[in-house]
Amino acid sequence: MSTHTEVNVPALGKINLPTGLFINNEWVPAKSGETFDTVNPATGEKLVAVAHAGKEDVDAAVAAARKAFKTTWGRKIAGAERGALLNKLADLLERDAEKVAAIESLNSGKGVRIAREGDVGDSVACLRYYAGLADKIFGQTIDQFGDEKICYTLHQPIGVCGQIIPWNYPLLMWAWKVGPALAAGCCVVMKPSELTPLTALMLCDLAKEAGIPAGVINTVPGLGATTGEIISRHLDIDKVAFTGSVGTGRRISVAAAESNLKKVTLELGGKSPLLIFDTADLEEAANWTSLGIWFNSGQDCCASSRIYVQETVYDKFLEVLKRRAEAAAIGQPHDEKTSFGPLISAGQRDKVLSYINSGKEQGARIVTGGQKWPQSNGGFWVEPTIIADVDESMKVVQEEIFGPVIVAAKFKTEEEAIELANNTTYGLAAGVFTNDARQMTRISGALDAGTVWCNQYGLLHAGVPFGGFKQSGIGRELGTYGIEAYTQVKAVHQNLSQTIEWPL
Length: 504
Ligand code: NAD
What we know:
Elements: E1 4-9, E2 13-18, E3 21-23, E4 26-28, E5 35-39, E6 46-51, H1 55-71, H2 79-95, H3 97-108, H4 112-133, E7 141-142, E8 149-157, E9 160-164, H5 170-184, E10 187-191, H6 198-210, E11 217-219, H7 224-233, E12 239-243, H8 246-258, E13 263-267, E14 273-276, H9 282-294, E15 306-310, H10 314-326, H11 346-361, E16 365-368, E17 385-388, H12 395-398, E18 405-411, H13 414-422, E19 429-433, H14 437-446, E20 451-454, E21 473-474, H15 479-484, E22 487-495
Parallel strand pairs: 9-10, 9-12, 10-11, 12-13, 14-15, 14-19, 15-18, 17-18, 19-20
Antiparallel strand pairs: 1-2, 3-4, 5-6, 7-8, 8-22, 13-21, 16-17
Helix pairs in contact: 2-4, 2-5, 2-6, 3-4, 4-5, 7-8, 9-10
């Protein structure tokens, strides 16, 4: 079976894409010869068949990663050199931004301009941020024992890390995982989502070109229940870093516990609340709310999917927001003007439509949207949708929809707003719009969320940590917290003059 496939890419023509497994810096087919298909979400048609990694393939990838960890990476290379290689990788990604963005757009359905300026741009920035941190990893000196001894801590790389990522930001989630892992000195066995494996595979060629040694990055595409499960249960993987749904996060935790108690970090889902007070600038708040819910067609873990609006401005705000929904730049992914593309799959589209129906059945009001986009043809679009007058018992309020659907309800007082916002099992993000600075401080302290945006929404930065309270996850990515998640602390006691008598 071939490890590369020619694909026709809008505006770029035919490109020969890697579709095999990347193990020890070489492209190989799956040992079993098995493949799975990945689909174009804008047409519903098959894009390419990709190699499906099985147990033997994952074993080979782990062995290559372990060897690199012991010989060319890990503690065998200076942090500054790791940083230089990551910077080189970032430069190559920037050089190939057009091509990588075109493939990201084709495989995930997002608008090509968004893919280039957002996904590729932010991935380059993330790699550079961690390149800069690679030689700034240090512990403590505990020098409080007089002449007897000195103690210090070493922050050492954890080792071989399995990394399992989702389909909504295939390239950016790759950068969030690979950047800190490599900067810390870890080696990686990466499993991209079966729905969007293409850019993770392209990045392997760039890593090799950058000079990153063989075995440091290995990529094993495959399904969750097979390849993902094999990684989570592998006895020679030291950590799994996962981004995806709560259900899968739970399964990975169990697999890790039942195998070698590998360390686990989880970035999971959300049902993030946004509070809008009557002192806020409603036009401005509507712009940020729209970005929060309709960016990436709502397929965003920190989407502002529940809004609570003070009753005095509830109707007015919904009117302004409705205008924003109807002005969304919905269109074909390859069109430079598009910022709202199709959902990732027919299954995801049908799930979103069934949530909209359940909202209707439970008595909520559809303000706008609620249907497939009329020009969908074979693609998976759902219109930007607002569901108003919801109450806390409804499924659309309690469950993550992961589509372009926002639910709205009103509140009277600040206390009530906080209570409604925190009435969820999730705790990934939250937002508040108010012009009262003291209220902003009170509320950001009271919200149960790993990120709180005040008078804006949805903007992330490589230097600022991100992760969940409650069932939205364990651990943090980004910032210096993100690199800590790939190191482990060793305490060294160094005797200078202590002696003991034996027996005691
Ligand atoms: P998913 O959990 O279905 O899949 C994510 C990844 O896990 C995929 O690579 C999949 O193949 C793999 N997987 C599935 N079953 C597995 C198993 N049993 N063992 C090991 N791996 C398995 O999630 P998704 O549908 O791809 O992504 C959507 C979800 O991800 C949403 O809930 C969203 O909120 C969440 N998400 C969270 C963040 C964050 O940073 N918190 C970011 C993006 C997405």
